[in-house]
Amino acid sequence: MVKNLKIKVMNYDDWKLASPPEGGLVSSCCGEDYNEEYESDLEFDYFVCVSCQDECDIIEDYEYEQNRRESYLEDLADEQRLER
What we know:
84 residues; alpha+beta; two-stranded antiparallel sheet; flat
């Protein structure tokens, strides 16, 4: 028998005040975090991927996953066409 089992049950007020699930913006190239850089000579901001250090666009994380899935399916279809 288990003694001193402490289970925290979230009540409605805690649930309403809880933060939304994590998610957000990622780099379009690697799906990783990014840094915002500022070019003072040209007066514009741009984003640099933390993983590959290339300039990148910023997209939603679910959009990145969708793009990867579509790319995989395209590659799979190409592979099947080449096998015929």
